[in-house]
Amino acid sequence: MSVGCIPRQKTEAVQTVYEGEERWEEVVEGSEDAFFVSRKWAGVGVGVFDGVGGWGESGVDSGEFSWNMSRKTKEAFERRGGGMTPTKALEEAYEGVQRDRGVAGGTTACVGQICSGTGRLLVTNLGDSGCSVYRDGRLFFASKTQTHFFNAPFQLSKVPDSLRKKEKSYLQNKVRDADEYNMYMKHGDLVVFATDGVLDNLFFKKIENIVTETLVEAKIWVKQGKEIVPTKEKITKEQLLSGMDISRQLVTSAKKVASDTEIDTPFAQEAKKHNYYYKGGKPDDAVALILLVLEMAHVAILPPPILFYVRESN
């Protein structure tokens, strides 16, 4: 498990924190993209949240809103563990944020839960963040994007009292509007949860290539003729650490594309579908959280979760 995170005003994700994911929020500053990892039960709960930047035009800090949603969703998982689903956790978090008088704004959400015993993956996605699964060298699954119109994602939001009095409408969805997914993971599957800072800039084929090249180089996946399959050998800690570099590569690649004004991107293609002219990448915060699914019989030792975060400019 690892997370790569780059706020839009920074340039690269290079430093590494191995332990203490409870403090990750303190490490990552200035990002409207939030994330969490919950491991205090027989499984893993994860989530990525993208504070919708448009709220800033009304003087609302959506970064604070997304991090509050992230914290409360994590707390919901840790209160009830395996008895909690991503949808229920989001509902509890959203209800909690509604009661918090000091928080307002809007956020997308992609929350997942995987059971260690069965390999069952549940995903709840609302908006234009997303989850994708890579199996045997190929894209196996990708959640659908939810938007009201171009560049206006479904979002969980809370309008502050100061804005309610104005005659203006705001985009507001409920957790029930989210898409739910249910599938079983296999040994060797790689799961990516990412915000639109990644997905607007990297085509799934590019993500697939990064995943495949990294896992093959780490010898977690191996080539058998024309096929790629998980290794049957014992996987070492060093191999796992090499594989976890995928999250750093994803956000770094997305950041590079975002600054290219000539390259073709998913965001540019989506703009064209809606009769807008747009060329190049889309500057944004970027978060990629990855889970590598392994049968314990194939693992020598598990490293702690890794965070790749931004290096401060000199």
From TrEMBL:
SMART domains assigned: PP2C_SIG (SM00331), PP2Cc (SM00332)
InterPro entries tied to this protein: PPM-type-like_dom_sf (IPR036457), PPM-type_phosphatase-like_dom (IPR001932), PPTC7 (IPR039123)
Catalytic activity of the protein: O-phospho-L-threonyl-[protein] + H2O = L-threonyl-[protein] + phosphate; O-phospho-L-seryl-[protein] + H2O = L-seryl-[protein] + phosphate
The keyword rRNA-binding is annotated on this UniProt entry: no
GO molecular function, one term: metal ion binding
UniProt enzyme class: hydrolase
Coiled-coil stretches noted in the UniProt entry, renumbered to this chain: none
Residues of the PPM-type phosphatase domain: 16-294
Keyword Protein biosynthesis: no
Reported cofactor(s): Mn(2+); Mg(2+)
Superkingdom in the source lineage: Eukaryota
Keyword entries, A-Z: Hydrolase, Magnesium, Manganese, Metal-binding, Protein phosphatase
Enzyme Commission code(s) on record: 3.1.3.16
Family listed: Belongs to the PP2C family.
UniProt protein name: Protein phosphatase
Organism from which the protein derives: Pneumocystis jirovecii (strain RU7) (Human pneumocystis pneumonia agent)
